[in-house]
Amino acid sequence: MLIALLGATLPIIIEILFRRRKKQVILPTLKLLLKSQEQQKVKKQDLILLILRTILLAILAMALSRPLIRHGVVGDVSQRSVIILFDGTASTNQQIGVTTSFGLGTKKASSMIKELPEGSLITAIVISDDIDVIVENEEDLFMAASKIEGVRGRLGAMPISEGIAWTEKFIKDNKIENAEVYIFSDFQTYTWSKKNAENKLPSQTIQSLNNSTSDVFLVDVGGEPAFNIIVESIQPSEYVLTVGQKVTFIVNVKIVGKAPKDMKGQISFLVNKEKKLLREFDGSKDNWAFSFDYSFPSKGEFLVEVIAEGDDHAVDNQRMFLCNVPEDHQVLILDQNAGLDEKTISPATSFLKIAIKPNQTPGVEKNSRFKAKVIHPDRLSYENIANYSAIIVRGMSGITEGLGKKLEKYVKDGGGICFFTGPETNVYEYNKFFYKGGEGMLPRKLDKKKADPSADAPYPLFGESKHAAFSELSERKGTKDAAFVERFDFDKTEGAADVVLSLSDGTPAILEKKYGKGRSILINTSVGTNWSNISLVTEYPIMIQELLRYIVGQPDQASNLVTGEILKQDVYVSNQQLLLRYPDGKKVRLNPSEGEEKGSLIVRFDRTNQQGLYKFDVLEGVLKKSRFIVNTNADEGDLSRMSEGDVKDALSGSSYRWIPPDISLEEFVSKLNSVTELAAFFLWLLIIFIVAESFLAAKYGRRRGGNAK
Known about the structure:
The protein is an alpha/beta fold.
């Protein structure tokens, strides 16, 4: 129809073909001048009418062609591809009116989708601890909207740049042209300032995304909370917990934002959901530290938690700590002189066993957290060593490859082991099965045995050790009564061990090595008095117990995770599916997979996106721990967010459009994707020009050949 625009040239053609021809007429000079002025006026009038009639025909052609305006679309796109990215990090659980920031985002997105034209393809993802795909290339708009409405807030702390990078890859993989990307976020500074796994900031990922699409829309669904109370941590002062011994739980609380000085808050201390203690705080300072003392009355697993009150953002007001409290932590001693009946114990090992758990006086607080069991190494295959907090290997010979591998796996999985030397130590076997050319768990390669006369023998310097295990002996001096008369030299060219305690001549008395998830200690003397009388001095029980505490470490660490961290446990009994319950009651089945060791099984779970207590529905003995807890990332509690100006500065060089909270997203998208027909506009314009042309033609006396009177 636009060819009809050529009709606009008709008045020009007619004017050229039928214009009056000039005739030469001899007239008086004055009359010629008067005639010339009149003709000039007529020519101007004819030119105006010519232009009007030309425009009139052009408007008529445009009206008949029915032109359309497509809003927000580059080119003629028959099928729209809309990609929605939801910021699902913990900060989006902040209250916005009667809903949350995340809930507001899903509601707006759902309404937006319903305004899209039929045939549009919808893809929606949530970033939290991971990237969850809600819908992918969904054509049913109401189905997509329904699924999005059903999504609930998460508690992760993934940087927004991860989701943007995923979106770019999705567009490229699906070869999408002219995609529209909508990012719903509260624009928390923490989320928008972190780099992704490829070390890229959000500005860099959006610039890269712009290579695939320029239609990027940032939808602000954040609020402006006055202040926020964050329970940052809860930790016991002593990680090796036992029944009856008092432990202090240290709780750190932080207030971010401007809290009113008259604000009154309180924090409750609970054990297994039962409130035990209460503390109060106010808005006079930003950081608070609280101490809660508690003694566990019986053995078992306990859920310790603290809950703060005083603000409107409750997600980060809670912190939990799951701990297993035994009567005593079990220590296994391997002694080749022990009887196979487990009743015969050598005197030297008896000294060690008493040092681990001295005789207890009735009515007095427990003097040790440990209890020892002595077995012959040949009986190790009958023990579930995962139930022991630490293993002590007395100097021995006759070590087998099987024994070495079993102890090595125990330490790799997080166990603690302590090696003694002595006259029965087989240097070749220790180096072969425990040291393994520096790849094993023994801290240093054993060399030749060294002996000194008693008067010249070096002795341990307890007070000079800066190691954490000797903090209780920091004020004790060395004593010659504990001289190391005999000991091993170490190959100084090999090994990456740390010195825990030195002798008076500077040689190492005790060495340690981090191995896998566990720790290994090497004490360069015998258990008994063959090489040293250290077992007879008063510092000996303290040293042994402190070394055990050190290598045991944090036995409950694997049960206390932060959103996004991965749970991994050994499966001892079956390779069948394991049923795991989320804190909200949702269930998921997990398939055990092969572990690092041949024939071993592990269960792995990486969807720790809910705060609270998780539980495996399994029989006793299948897993070491059937429950674990997940806390929120405390960094997400800082709700300070970026303004439109801050975003503009941070994303400098990127192409995007900002949609503030006060703009109706449905109306925006409706207009963005609408088509406006202009035929009516051109028809009204045509009427206006016809009236104008008729009026001027009558005035000039040119309508239908009339003459001006």
